[in-house]
Amino acid sequence: MHYNTGRYEEQIEGYTAFIPACLPYSPDIQYDDSMHLMLSEADRALSGLDVMVDMLPNPDHFIWMLARKEALQSAQIEGTVATFYGILAYEADVSFDDDPNQIREVTNYMKALQTGFERVKNEPITLSLLCDLHRILLTKVRGSKALPGMIRPIQNQIGGDSLYKARYIPPPQENVRFLLNNLENFIAEEKTIPPLIVSALIHGQFKMIHPFLDGNGRIGRLLISLYLCWRQVLAKPTLNLSYYLKRNRSEYYDRLFSLEKNGDLEGWVKFFLQGVIEVSTDSHHLVKKIITLERELVKRVIYENIGGIHGARMIELLFMKTMVTSTDISTHCGVSIQTANNLVRKFEEAGIVKEVTGWKRNRKYLYRDYVKLIAEGTGP
């Protein structure tokens, strides 16, 4: 079925821009058997993930590690070249091979996600919030001159080296604020359409409006998690949808352009729901692997007597904090620094942790097996 998602308008300069229709589109979205099944499966997968995460030895640590993965993969969709280890090393002030400017693009996304998650606990999703998050996203990185936190005052484009050769030309700047006000109202007031489908609609609409000069893709993907958290579909930002969008990047863009060009709303929504199903299932399997990793490590530490009576507390710490210092170990295990040094040395000799600074003092140790599991799919 063709949906009225907008219209093309020729501009006086000679190029044609797309003016998105206001939400909700007409006619009302039709739920065929396939969409009903996908929506039901996506809801189950997402709710099941929340239950599984709570079974982890330290759920909060996992959630924010997964958020780092989402930040990295969302940035990679836009061409950022960075690694998961580079993010951890940057945060821990340890040397790394990645370009620090590229890493900052990822850590800025993390800051924006954390800020947004905290704010939607007590306030609605507004244009003001999105502008604040955009300002955080583009602080001291490429795009920092693209008016961070400000709605674009000029025409922009996607693809091509000019407006006349662009793949997509969003609405002219004079239409943007009206469309954003409609989007804001739709987010606040829509209660009859299932939240997962609303999240697909608002992401697609935001991408078609393209309200900023840079960072639209990342803010648009951030909006998905924020909306689901605001609607309390997600307790915390555990939806790693950029994993799916990255590995299906061509279809992702094609579906969005088809939404604009052909009014193919059902195709876009089904693609989106398939992503929710796949990444929720992936994260479900990841949680199982981490639970198994912890159980196997406990067995090994007991069997090989690694760390003696403090071995179990050391394991507990490694699932709370992936990169640790002797001070961390001393505090958590309630032992002296000397005992902590001996304890981490035994874990290092057993190949469980790896020293990553090369320093003689203030050394830091990485629990590589945990990081390896989380980082799956973050390569180029």
TrEMBL record:
Pfam family, one: Fic_N
InterPro entries reported for this sequence: Fic/DOC_N, Fido, Fido-like_dom_sf, Fido_containing, SoFic-like, WH_DNA-bd_sf
Superkingdom, taxonomy of origin: Archaea
Family matches, as Gene3D superfamilies: Fido-like domain
Domain Fido: 125-274
The name this protein goes by in its record: Filamentation induced by cAMP protein Fic
Native species: Methanospirillum hungatei JF-1 (strain ATCC 27890 / DSM 864 / NBRC 100397 / JF-1)
